[in-house]
Amino acid sequence: MRYFDGYGIIRDIVHSHILQTIALLAMEPPISLNGEDIRNEKVKVLRLIRRLEPSNVILGQYKATFDDKVDVKLNSLTPTYFAAVLYIDNARWDGVPFLIKAGMGLIKHRVEIRIQFRHVPGNIYHDRFGHNINLATNELILRDVPDEAILVRVNNKVPGLGLQLDASELNLLYKDKYNAEVPDSYEHLLLDVIDGDNHLFMRSDELTAAWNILNPVLQEIDKNNIAPELYELGGRGPVGAYYLWAKHGVQWTED
Questions:
Q1: Residues of the chain with pLDDT > 90: what percent?
Q2: CA distance 98 to 24
Q3: Which residue from 8, 14, 145, 250 has the least number of CB within 10 angstroms?
Q4: Are 229 and 58 in contact (CB under 8 A)?
């Protein structure tokens, strides 16, 4: 897609898709389900997200081959991968890192939100884990297409007479639980247009707030001050992303 080469993953995916998802997750409860009431709360959250600093961003570009379906020029600096850490400066989310990543040509296509719970200070079960306690963090995972699911990763007692803890996963896989077809995202949006429901559509002030978050990074890219890290097609993306997670005290585990 030559379109993608001109705009990149930030303008194509991060601005309209990922930031909207964060806004819906982190917003305060609206006073009603009316579209304008929901959009009022979304824009409040977007205005409170700190402007992105280049030090909290990792860009990547996959190593293209002649038979790639995505037409990204080899001599272009257009990012095909974006990872960042966002912070929302309000009472509810103060100090909580929001890790986001989006990429093309990765080992798997997946859209998900991970909410990683903090460790309890002075954990008295510290010596009861069968592995490193820093890797055993409780998580709530909300997964979108193509494998819609709600997952909870929790630390639990291993059955038996002893007191040994382990990490387990509780799964709600929609395709296994419900015998119903999940509509495509654009089908849902088209139905909203027909019904006059605008809560999922961006208002002009939301657009402005979202661009304000991303503009510092986009300006550095336009000045060629940030070079994307190359990664293998069909791989896990730039190695730098894992160092970024570690810098903010988050262990991102892959399935």
A1: 30
A2: 13
A3: 145
A4: yes
Q: What is the mean pLDDT of the chain?
A: 83
Q: Which two tokens stand for residue 246?
A: 């570690």
Question: In whole angstroms, what is the distance from residue 84 CA to residue 4 CA?
Answer: 20
CB distance 253 to 135 below 8 Å: yes
pLDDT, one tens digit per residue, over 202-250 is 899 999 999 999 999 999 988 888 888 999 888 888 999 989 988 887 7
Residue in the block written with tokens 């490193």: 132
Query: Which tokens is 137 given?
Result: 């963090």
Q: At which residue do the structure tokens 């002075």 appear?
A: 122
* Helix 35-48, helix 19-26: angle, nearest 10: 100
Residue 236 phi/psi, 5° resolution?
-100, 0
Q: Determine which of 27-36, 58-67, 88-97, 119-128 has the lowest per-residue pLDDT on average.
A: 119-128
pLDDT digits (tens, 9 = 90+) for 11-46: 888 998 889 989 999 999 999 999 999 999 999 999
d(CA 222, CA 240): 21
Task: Just list the catalytic residues.
Answer: 17
SS3 content of the chain, % helix, strand, coil (to 5): 35, 20, 45
Question: Phi, psi at residue 142, to the nearest 5°?
Answer: -105, 115
CA distances from 217 to 14, 62, 69, 225 (A): 12, 20, 27, 9
Q: CA distances (Å), 71 to each of 102, 159, 215, in order?
A: 18, 53, 25
Q: How far apart are CA 117 and CA 120, in angstroms?
A: 9
What angle is formed at CA 50 by the lines to CA 240 and CA 218, rounded to 5 degrees? Answer: 60
Q: What is the pTM of this model?
A: 0.81
